[in-house]
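PROTEIN DESIGN WORKSHEET
SECTION A - STRUCTURE
LENGTH: 270
TOKENS:
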């Protein structure tokens, strides 16, 4: 065999060795690809819950006017009266599914700061997304458990525990004629005469609102990536600006609602 034929034989079929060297090395498959489907479902459910959060805060902001807040609550209660089972199907069940899927993903991905290398907006944002998830769950459990009939009222009915006697007739929230006062008691006067206890509860509620605002806005961005709706860096950047605006609106609106039920003149009158 001549040198020429030996060189030809040593070259890969279909091109020279320089062509082979220029081929990109195969990238290792991301270990989180197995979680793509549950993350997509979690993001889709999160979109629905974000819409509910926005509507919820829009009504809560009207707490700056107790009369307007009472009218809006009355309208919502009247509307729900024509939609039996709506609260269970459209709010409670999606909330439970969102919590369950979030805990499943958290168990798989952990709370380490530098976990994996997927495009999720940076390590800090992904860490805060996982951190705010359990915080929102704790806030939701307190919110639903104390204010609504689906919480500690059901526990009292089942156990008749004396310590829960204040929930004998329902949750703390009273839609008919006392919506503002009962909301104030749930957020700003939960611990009765204990100033320190009331301050702590109010602070936890504020942190819960901020956590929900960040989680919803950042989740909207990562959800777009998960569903392949942001194919280019430019589309990700533009959608990022929209998500920042969404987060700011939720934070400002949530803080305004929190103030209306904790520190406003009308709230302190109770």
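SECTION B - SEQUENCE
RESIDUE ASSIGNMENT:
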């Amino acid at each position: 065999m001549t040198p020429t034929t030996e060189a030809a034989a040593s070259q890969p079929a279909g091109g020279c060795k320089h062509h082979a060297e220029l081929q990109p090395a195969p990238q290792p498959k991301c270990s989180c690809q197995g979680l793509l489907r549950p993350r997509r479902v979690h993001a889709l459910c999160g979109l629905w819950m974000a819409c509910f959060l926005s509507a919820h805060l829009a009504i809560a902001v009207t707490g700056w006017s107790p009369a307007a807040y009472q009218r809006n609550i009355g309208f919502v209660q009247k509307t729900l009266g024509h939609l039996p089972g709506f609260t269970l199907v459209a709010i409670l069940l999606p909330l439970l599914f969102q919590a369950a899927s979030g805990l499943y993903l958290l168990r798989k991905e952990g709370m380490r700061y530098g976990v994996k290398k997927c495009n999720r907006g940076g390590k800090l944002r992904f860490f805060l997304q996982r951190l705010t998830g359990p915080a929102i769950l704790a806030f939701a459990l307190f919110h639903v458990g104390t204010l609504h009939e689906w919480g500690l009222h059901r526990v009292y009915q089942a156990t008749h525990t004396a310590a829960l006697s204040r929930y004998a007739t329902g949750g703390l929230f009273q839609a008919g004629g006392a919506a503002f006062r009962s909301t104030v008691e749930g957020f700003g006067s939960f611990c009765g005469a204990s100033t320190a206890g009331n301050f702590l509860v109010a602070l936890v509620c504020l942190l819960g609102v901020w956590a929900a605002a960040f989680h919803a806005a950042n989740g909207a961005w990562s959800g777009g990536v998960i569903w392949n709706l942001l194919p280019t860096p430019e589309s990700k950047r533009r959608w990022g600006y929209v998500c920042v605006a969404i987060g700011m609106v939720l934070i400002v609106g949530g803080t305004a609602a929190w103030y209306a039920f904790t520190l406003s003149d009308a709230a302190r009158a109770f």
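SECTION C - NOTES
The chain has one domain: 39-95+123-268.
The CA atoms of residues 61 and 253 lie 6 Å apart.
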